[in-house]
């Protein structure tokens, strides 16, 4: 399946389906002239798929330098960015080269940021291998790394030339990593396609359906200046705060977002009139994929609030919080207070 991302200045396609890693070279060559490239991956994905992708790229005429980062959120840092850039310089890659990201959301964000800043920007191709990356983070051009004060605070918009999502790679994911991706799927269902909650089993179709939602929103608001793209942050304000306060690595991204979705749904019932049965259906979907619905008692509310105050979703101290009036009817509210958020975080312990 091919899903277009119809951006005005840099449109591209997302290819989703089985068996696409063997076509990575020909698909890449359809959007960039074969050249020297850095294949950036991590220590979990490299043993599984790097050789297969290297062979496909080489067959298409690319000269591949594979760079492996340690797996995990800790690699999404300025230190690892600097290390990758140094290794690319040492390997002789220059402004005519390109970057390929092979892995999950961490690899895609990190490699995309490297591509955005290396020689002031070189072409970039996404080859996502996790549910989170295939349905969400590989599309839309947001790249970046974490700072000690918060998630994704250092970054750039840098759109890929193509996204190659081989759904066969999802079969190699451990159950916990597979399940975490459904937090983003459930988020997309809540804000745009509630019927999708009843159709979560056909993976290739599900990936394409989610990409279409993300592509439509990104095309309307590429740089998040109109308020449309902010709808994709449903559940993320509190989720990112929890992820930061808990220490990166304790929760997978989707697990923290699951907790944020619980709080955002409850706030939507309270503040925007979301019917309780709709809230319950979202929470039931999260539970189906063993995503957390309650917060451990050792993470202080104050620490989460402190992390939230440094989040990009706070504008001049004003909270921009995404709520649901009804399924598919999301909006950005400025009426959610810090005390509302603190109360809902505390309620997550019940």
Question: What does the overall shape look like?
Answer: globular
How many distinct folded domains?
2
Supply the CATH architecture of the largest domain.
Answer: 3-Layer(aba) Sandwich
Number of helices: 13
Return the CATH topology of the largest domain. Rossmann fold
Order of helices and strands, N to C?
A: EEHEHEHEHEHEEEHHHHHHHEEEEH
The order of strands across the largest sheet is 4-3-5-6
Based on secondary structure, the structural category is: alpha/beta
Roughly how many Å is the radius of gyration?
Answer: 19 Å
Ends distance:
43 Å
Index terms:
13 helices, 350 residues, alpha/beta, three-stranded mixed sheet, Dehydroquinate synthase-like, alpha domain, 2 domains, Rossmann fold
Describe the protein.
It is a single chain. It is built from 13 helices and 13 strands. It is an alpha/beta fold and 350 residues long. A four-stranded parallel beta sheet has the order 4-3-5-6, sandwiched between helices. The longest helix is centred in the last third of the chain and has 20 residues. The chain is globular, with a radius of gyration of 19 Å. The model has no long low-confidence stretch (mean pLDDT 95).
């Amino acid at each position: 399946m091919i899903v277009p991302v119809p951006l005005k200045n840099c449109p591209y396609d997302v290819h989703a389906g089985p068996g696409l890693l063997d076509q990575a070279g020909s698909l890449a060559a359809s959007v960039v002239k074969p050249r020297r490239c850095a294949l950036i991956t991590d220590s979990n994905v490299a043993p599984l798929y790097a050789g297969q992708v290297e062979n496909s790229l080489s067959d298409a005429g690319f000269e591949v330098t594979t760079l492996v980062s340690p797996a995990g959120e800790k690699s999404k840092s300025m230190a690892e960015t600097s290390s990758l850039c140094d290794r690319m310089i040492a390997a002789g890659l220059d402004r005519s080269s390109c970057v390929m990201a092979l892995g999950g959301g961490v690899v895609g964000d990190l490699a995309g940021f490297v591509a955005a800043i290396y020689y002031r920007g070189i072409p970039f191709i996404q080859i996502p291998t996790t549910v989170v990356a295939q349905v969400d983070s590989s599309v839309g051009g947001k790249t970046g790394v974490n700072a000690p004060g918060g998630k994704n605070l250092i970054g750039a918009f840098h759109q890929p030339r193509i996204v190659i999502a081989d759904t066969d790679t999802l079969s190699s994911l451990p159950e916990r990593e597979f399940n975490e991706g459904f937090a983003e799927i459930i988020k997309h269902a809540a804000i745009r396609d509630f019927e999708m909650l009843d159709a979560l089993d056909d993976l290739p179709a599900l990936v394409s359906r989610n990409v279409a939602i993300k592509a439509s929103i990104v095309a309307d608001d590429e740089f998040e200046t109109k308020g449309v793209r902010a709808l994709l942050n449903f559940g993320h304000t509190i989720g990112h705060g929890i992820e930061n306060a808990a220490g990166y690595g304790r929760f997978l991204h989707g697990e923290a977002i699951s907790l944020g979705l619980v709080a955002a749904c409850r706030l939507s019932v309270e503040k925007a009139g979301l019917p309780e049965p709709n809230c319950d259906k979202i929470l039931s979907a999260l539970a189906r994929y063993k995503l957390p619905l309650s917060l451990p008692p050792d993470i202080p509310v104050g620490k989460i609030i402190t992390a939230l105050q440094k989040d990009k979703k706070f504008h001049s101290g004003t909270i921009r919080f995404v709520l649901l009036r009804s399924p598919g009817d999301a909006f950005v509210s400025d009426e959610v207070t810090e005390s509302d958020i603190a109360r809902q975080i505390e309620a997550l312990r019940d």
